[in-house]
């Protein structure tokens, strides 16, 4: 008799969609090994400012799934900084119903599209003093419904069954807190600096609860632009040059590498300063225990960027390696790029 294997023996497929590529990760149900991890570049012309269209994204997802070892079709997708509006707002302390009304009122005046076109969520982070008043600070998250529908439609078109759409900072936190935290460390605070193609997500967790989220308009695109401007190159040539020569260290460096690193130095310095300001704001506003660890992740994370953060901040800094605790085949590319997709695969779906 043929016995059919249940998909329940595997995690959902985590799908991380960025401007230039998609990353897909699936784990076994015990979270002991990687079933598959794949990255596929976008094709079919330049991606618009609104992100890839349905057909362009569906093509990348189909190529990522076709002929691979993925089991089942259940998937969890993410909204990243290009599709996610994030802002800290302060409202008077109130009952639950009144708090929701106040938050939606704030959202209506802040989000860059009509509130009835938005999927809104909020995260209370704590009470803060504003003058002589105690206010409730919350992180407001908003996704534009048409963009969410594009993600879902593309996944369905590529043969997936979307079960949930998560936010990028929650996926990053889920990935690394599972990896780093022991039972005795549950009350410690950690900062996650996820450096992406256009933006950097800075978040702080207290155990498994996010207490701070902010996006910085700094990422790989700004570094590529700096290389293009300083070395008088076309942007496409700068992208290729930085990809092959950037972030080398010490004896690995040649003249080209040194020129690339010098070109991106002001961008890196601005990133480090912005992260430092986030850390100071969090410690002053909430007067909680100090952050004890910083994890540098994302597609643009590197040891040289981590070193730059470590030199500025009085915090233990580690370079993210999301798949290190799972048995897996050799996977090419920077290991830190898999943090969002891994965090999505770790999300339980009812």
Give a description of the structure.
With 350 residues, this protein is of the alpha/beta class. It has a domain at 84-144: Dna Ligase, domain 1 (2-Layer Sandwich), CATH 3.30.1490. 35% of the residues lie in helices and 29% in strands. It is built from nine helices and 13 strands. The chain has helices at residues 54-65, 96-108, 145-157, 168-180, 220-231, 235-245, 255-286, 303-312, 339-345; strands spanning 13-17, 21-27, 34-41, 74-79, 84-92, 118-130, 133-144, 161-167, 189-195, 200-206, 209-216, 291-297, 316-319. The strands form three sheets. Strands 3-2-1-4-8 form a five-stranded mixed β-sheet. A hairpin with a 6-residue loop joins strand 2 and strand 3 (34-41). Helix 4 (168-180) crosses helix 9 (339-345) and helix 5 packs antiparallel against helix 7 (255-286). The longest helix has 32 residues, at 255-286. It starts with 12 loop residues before the first strand and ends in a 5-residue tail after the last helix. Mean pLDDT is 88; it is low at 1-6.
Structure summarized in a few sentences:
The protein has helices spanning 54-65, 96-108, 145-157, 168-180, 220-231, 235-245, 255-286, 303-312, 339-345, and strands at 13-17, 21-27, 34-41, 74-79, 84-92, 118-130, 133-144, 161-167, 189-195, 200-206, 209-216, 291-297, 316-319. By secondary structure, the protein is an alpha/beta fold.
């Amino acid at each position: 008799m043929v016995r059919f294997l249940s998909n329940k023996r595997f995690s959902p497929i985590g799908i991380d969609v960025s401007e230039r590529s998609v990353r897909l990760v699936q784990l076994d149900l015990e979270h002991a090994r990687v079933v598959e991890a794949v990255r596929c570049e976008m094709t079919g012309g330049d991606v618009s400012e609104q992100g890839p269209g349905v057909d362009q994204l569906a093509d990348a997802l189909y190529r990522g799934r076709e002929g691979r070892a993925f089991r089942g079709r259940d998937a969890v997708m993410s909204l990243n900084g290009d599709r996610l509006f994030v802002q800290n707002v302060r409202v008077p302390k109130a009952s639950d119903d009144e708090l929701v009304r106040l938050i939606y009122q704030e959202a209506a005046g802040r989000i860059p599209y009509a509130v009835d076109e938005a999927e809104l969520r909020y995260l209370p982070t704590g009470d803060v003093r504003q003058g002589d008043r105690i206010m409730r600070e919350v992180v407001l998250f908003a996704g534009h419904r048409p963009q969410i529908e594009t993600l879902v439609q593309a996944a369905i078109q590529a043969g997936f069954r979307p079960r949930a759409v998560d936010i990028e900072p929650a996926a990053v936190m889920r990935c690394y807190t599972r990896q780093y935290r022991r039972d005795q460390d549950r009350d410690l605070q950690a900062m996650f600096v996820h450096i992406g193609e256009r933006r950097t997500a800075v978040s702080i967790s207290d155990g498994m609860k996010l207490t701070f989220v902010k996006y910085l308009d700094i990422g790989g695109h700004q570094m590529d632009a700096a290389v293009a401007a300083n070395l008088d190159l076309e942007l496409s040539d700068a992208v290729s040059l930085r990809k092959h020569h950037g972030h080398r260290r010490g004896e690995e460096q040649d003249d080209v590498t040194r020129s690339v690193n010098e070109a991106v130095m002001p961008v890196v310095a601005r990133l480090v300063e912005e992260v430092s300001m986030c850390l100071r704001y969090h410690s002053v506003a909430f007067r909680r225990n100090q952050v004890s660890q910083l994890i540098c992740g994302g597609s643009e994370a590197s040891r040289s960027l981590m070193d730059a953060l470590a030199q500025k901040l009085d915090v233990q800094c580690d370079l993210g390696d999301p798949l290190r605790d799972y048995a897996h085949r050799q996977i090419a590319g920077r290991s830190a790029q898999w943090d969002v997709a891994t965090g999505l695969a770790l999300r339980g779906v009812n």
